[in-house]
Input
Amino acid sequence: MEQAMQENALAVQDGQEVVVHMQNIGFSYAQNHLFNHLDLEIRRGNIYGLLGKNGAGKTTLLKILSGQLFIEEGETKVLEENPQKRTPSLLSEIFYLPEEFPLPKMKASEYLAMRSPFYPKFDHEKFNQYCSEFDIDLNQRLDQMSLGQKKKVLLSFGLATNTALLILDEPTNGLDIPSKRQFRQTVASAMTEQRTFIISTHQVRDMENLIDPIIILHDGKVIFNDTVESVNEKYVLSLTTEQPKADEGMYTEKVLGGWMVLSERTDDREGKPLDLETLFNVIVEQSKGSAGGVK
Amino acid sequence: MQFNTHSPIYMQIAEYIHDLILSNVWEDGQRIPSVRDMAMELEVNPNTVIRTYSLLQEEGTLENQRGIGYFTAKDARTLVLQKRREHFLKRELPSLFETMERLGLTMKDLQQYADNKEKDDEIEPQEE
Output
């Protein structure tokens, strides 16, 4: 079935096949209701960016997807399977890079030998290539590495697993400046039509041109799941030196030299595209007013 | 490549490719980097590069030879030159005229400036 699925994915347009389907999800920690009727659909062949305020539940969502947390309500399907069953066939197709993680007291090379057999499509050549690009010494012990170095080992490992789903939770936290660039290059080159990456981040500027579509998690729901381009097609951002009236535009923000006003697009003139920070602010702001958000 | 915030990334990459063709870095009919290599070089989402390549394919600047890769068209340079000239006349020139009007400059002033500039250009080599 696995193979049939892959061949099928080649036939359809890239990014059309649904790999994650979440419907009506409810989840809480003790008395704290985190998710309420949350829906989410993720399609193959894309690098998704998962955005949300602190405590919005980004990590929880990623853990539910990868079978590490169990939901109370609703249905989750990942690659046609229920992640709560934690079948080897599914788990060998998911790699999850946590934001913080303990690593065993062993060399990177020993870690590789221990964990790579769980991933049938693991590419050792690529792993070595990524590690050397990241300047990682495989003979160094993991517990003696800095957070950034450990991240680079796990990133190289995750990208080399060739899993259908790669989940990265705040991957650029702890990376130094040259490594962030390396990260973008490596992720761009490791992406294929067969894979799907989900990257949660607060560092939107690190990934501005890498993540798209964008998923925004807010108030226990997915309030946005679309491409940046689709927003730019519908709305246009303009700069004005006069203070906009209260009812002008759907979103205004004071910026250097005036105000930024977002309004519905009425012609096809080239407007300033939304950057991710503004997109996030607009969508979250809009969701307060109307239940439906900007869309 | 430094991206600006004025137009969508896929459009900026298209312009960048136009520049490569205009300046003959990419010659007519030559094979160009794969989507993945381009995405890696520019540190962008590969889907964005796919978008740019299809756009350029539609306008006839690029050709996709199935199973081999992307190539610049045989007449890519002429095509881009024509497109860019059109863009200058339709989009840039009107705003230039607008600025001239605001500053009270006429075509005559510009002509003078252009003549002077030509003279300067002529003088310079003589001085050396």
